[in-house]
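Encode chain A's predicted structure.
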Amino acid sequence: MLVATTETVPGYRRVQTLGQVFGVVVRSRGLGGNIIASLRTILGGEIHEYTQLLEEARRQAVDRLVANGAAMGANAILMMRFDSSEIGQMMSEIVAYGTAVVLEPDHAA
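Encoded structure for chain A:
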């Protein structure tokens, strides 16, 4: 499945727009990770525990986005974006969203 942040894909034309599609992940930060991260804030710099958590959550959100798009019959997702928010003080929500479409090669291009 092609996932693009653009509205169009060179060499392809949109045959059908299927609608909005998304993948949602809610992850909690464990107590151990919070303690280590708190200690790292004293020294400054990157907090690797949170970076890893968010990278994994984004990958999982994109995987769910692709699965939902495929279930709709899409072969591509255009205008893909991420959004994130905090739920309480211990959880993060990551959403990958876009427009599920059917593309075909544009032989005129």
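The CA atoms of residues 37 and 47 lie 6 Å apart.
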